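ok so I'm stuck.
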Amino acid sequence: MKIICKKSNLVKAVSTVSKAVPSKTTMPILECILIDASKGIIKLTANDTELGIDTIIEGNIVEKGIVALD
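replied:
not stuck anymore, here's the structure
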């Protein structure tokens, strides 16, 4: 995956979705933020099984892909 976007947009989106990332969990995947650039939009998602937050940012997708980052 390769995307090009404004740093300020990415920081704001990460800050928004990180509110749904639990500090401690028995499921390590819940500590990640999912970045999905596979369908023509850049979407960031976080979930703690009770609360899910996703947001879309503007940018260019050079190579499509999906990645989960802590």
